[in-house]
């Protein structure tokens, strides 16, 4: 609803891939591929949009060693809710290991996007014009950012993350998952 979007001050989304292969097709990331029409509506009408793309989130890795440490903590503290973390992360690690051989752990795509809300200074952004291809064919769902000095006037400009402080992210994840619940 465009009227609702006018009242939204800021929007942060995980989607797209820039200078990086897609995870659904060679060029398309899953969220934008699922509905490129909706993605373009947001790109055209959001006032203050920040995109955390696949080329960033793919590096927000939780390694098997981190998972083992988290699992051991929850077993020692008998935190039953915490015991679901390992099976979930193992499931994703197995999935990503098949689609991306040699990956060192499970990427936390949505987690790093939410983490950005609390740690904006740990993420580097660029303002660039962006569009998503809605046309059927090989480019369906592809996100395009125009990094040229003279840009396409048909693309609205937004904040796009291009790197983040992984060590800070990893420290926060471990501190969060290694807290005793009350």
From TrEMBL:
Reply yes or no: does the keyword Transferase apply. Answer: no
Cellular component annotations (GO), alphabetically ordered? cytosol
The signal peptide here is none
InterPro entries assigned to the protein according to its UniProt record, in alphabetical order: Inosine/uridine_hydrolase_dom, IUNH, Ribo_hydro-like
Report the residue ranges that make up the Inosine/uridine-preferring nucleoside hydrolase domain in this protein.
4-170
Q: Which Pfam families match?
A: IU_nuc_hydro
Key words, A-Z:
Glycosidase, Hydrolase
For this protein, the record's CDD domains field holds:
nuc_hydro
Which Gene3D superfamilies has this protein been placed in? Ribonucleoside hydrolase-like
Under PANTHER family, the record lists:
INOSINE-URIDINE PREFERRING NUCLEOSIDE HYDROLASE, URIDINE NUCLEOSIDASE
The protein's name is Nucleoside hydrolase
Query: Could you tell me which species this protein originates from?
Result: Bacillus thuringiensis
According to the entry, what is the taxonomic lineage of the organism? Bacteria, Bacillati, Bacillota, Bacilli, Bacillales
């Amino acid at each position: 609803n465009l009227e609702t979007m006018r009242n939204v001050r800021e929007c942060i989304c995980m989607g797209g891939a820039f200078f990086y292969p897609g995870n659904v097709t060679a060029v398309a990331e899953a969220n934008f591929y699922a509905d490129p029409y909706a993605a373009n509506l947001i790109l055209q009408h959001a006032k203050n949009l920040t995109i955390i793309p696949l080329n960033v989130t793919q590096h927000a890795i939780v390694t098997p060693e981190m998972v083992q440490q988290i699992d051991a903590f929850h077993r020692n503290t008998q935190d039953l809710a915490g015991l679901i973390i390992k099976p979930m992360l193992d499931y994703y690690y197995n999935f990503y290991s098949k689609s991306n051989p040699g990956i060192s752990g499970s990427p936390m795509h949505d987690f790093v996007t939410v983490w950005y809300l609390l740690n904006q200074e740990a993420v580097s952004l660029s303002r660039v014009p962006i569009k998503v291809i809605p046309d059927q064919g090989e480019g369906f769902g592809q996100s395009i950012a125009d990094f040229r000095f003279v840009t396409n006037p048909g693309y609205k400009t937004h904040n796009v993350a291009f790197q983040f402080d992984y060590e800070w992210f990893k420290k926060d994840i471990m501190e969060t998952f290694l807290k005793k619940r009350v």
